[in-house]
Amino acid sequence: MSKAKPFAELEARMSKESIARSDRLYEKLRDEYELSKIRTAAGLSQEEMARRLNVDQAQVSRIEKRSDARVSTIARYVRAAGGKLRVVADMPAGMFELKGLAVPTITRVAAAGKAVTTKANARSTAKATRRSKEKVKA
After folding, report:
1. End-to-end CA distance of the chain
2. DSSP state, 110?
3. For the structural domain made of 12-103, what CATH number should be given?
């Protein structure tokens, strides 16, 4: 198994042209990857988005600044803003929508007032919600 090398070591072996090309690509991708645009287009503040995601505002800020995120994280964020994430591969043979990715759904739980992001969490939250309702009735 090969050992991972520090980026600085790899970069030291790159040509100036390669570094410049890499920097331009990084800037282009960073500009295209702005989750905050999705949030603001939905008319949401970071605080409201945090409430919908069941995280604190600082976590929303970290998600928005991250240059590389899991598909499931982006999908949760987009759904919390009211959208649906679609992943499409643009291939020479045509466009292919990638389905079957492990993308959790968000279920609103009115009694708890929090978003549930996985089936396991949905089950445990549903149980907690039922117990809360039973306590209120008693």
Report:
1. 61
2. T
3. 1.10.260.40
